[in-house]
Design a protein that fits this description.
single chain, alpha+beta, 4 strands, 49% helix
Length: 297
């Protein structure tokens, strides 16, 4: 009996050392829908939670403490039929900064072009990388995007395998004519995102993403001035990125998760550094000058 217990404990410990990659909070908001059956949304929320958190998205071994903190929030906008819905999805992920209690946002994106089919009490599964419907495709796409950004932040171009997986998902979804994927319909489509990130010309941006996190934020606890200077000096890469075709969506994604953080970091710089930072960011984000106001003080 004791031997059986020991074996079970060994098995459980081994399982915990090979934890899935994501630690996701999932919410489904159906307050806009006057439906008599609200159970379907509770079922959807639970099924998504199980799918995202239990799916093995890579071959990398994660410890429990290394799981990526993320949020998937779905707002149901319209019930098109009994099992078909129009919605928007908000996806956010966060990364810890070394030697601090601070976490930095690495993805902060709202996708407003999301239609899917779901039947109450149905499990959500990704079987042998086969996309059975748009719900699976969208969730799998953003899971891989989270992993790509996270891995890129720890190792230069380290998220390449996840970008390839996201691109494969986008290609399959386009061939199925599911909504929200066609780059012809919107320059903010999921395909537009992955095509821009996969562009060879975007490598300097992805390398800056690594510098920003690993060589700057992670160093700020030990040397705040050096970390801040490294980030501010690296912003020139964003100017070059702006000249890359179809990079607008990537610069928007960067602003959504990093602009306020950069302003906060630069606010502690000297007057010359603040002015340089303001000029660079104003040129890249001319409609966001109100967020840059602290740099003018």
């Amino acid at each position: 009996m004791k031997q059986i217990i020991v074996i079970m404990l060994i098995f459980l410990c081994a399982a915990s050392l090979q934890a899935q990659e994501l630690n996701a909070t999932v919410t489904v908001n159906s307050s806009r829908i006057q439906s008599t059956n609200k159970n379907i949304f509770s079922s959807l929320e639970q099924a998504l939670f199980q799918f995202i958190n239990n799916q093995l998205w890579s071959s990398t071994t994660f410890n429990q403490s290394e799981k990526i903190e993320c949020t998937f929030s779905i707002t149901i906008l319209e019930q098109l039929s009994e099992n078909n819905f129009k919605a928007e999805i908000f996806v956010q992920s966060r990364r810890p900064v070394y030697n601090s209690a601070y976490t930095t946002t690495i993805l902060n994106w709202r996708d407003v072009n999301f239609e899917f089919e779901y039947m109450e009490n149905s499990p959500i599964e990704l079987v042998q990388n086969t996309l059975s419907n748009n719900l699976v495709a969208v969730i799998a796409f953003y899971a891989n995007l989270i992993l790509a950004f996270d891995f890129d932040s720890f190792s230069s171009l380290g998220g390449a395998v996840f970008l390839r997986q996201a691109q494969s998902i986008a290609m399959q979804a386009q061939s199925s004519s599911w909504n929200g994927w066609s780059s012809f319909d919107s320059n903010k489509s999921r395909t537009s995102i992955i095509n821009a990130l996969s562009n060879e010309s975007m490598k300097p941006y992805r390398e800056f993403w690594y510098t920003y996190h690993r060589k700057s934020l992670d160093e700020m606890a030990a040397n705040p001035d050096r970390g801040r200077t490294t980030i501010l000096n690296g912003l020139s890469v964003l100017k070059d990125t702006k000249s890359v075709r179809d990079s607008e969506i990537i610069l928007q994604m960067f602003a959504d998760c990093k602009l306020d953080e950069i302003v906060s970091i630069a606010a502690k710089a000297n007057s010359e550094e603040k002015k340089t930072t303001y000029d660079i960011l104003r040129n890249i984000y001319p409609t966001m000058t109100s967020q840059l106001e602290p740099l003018k003080k």
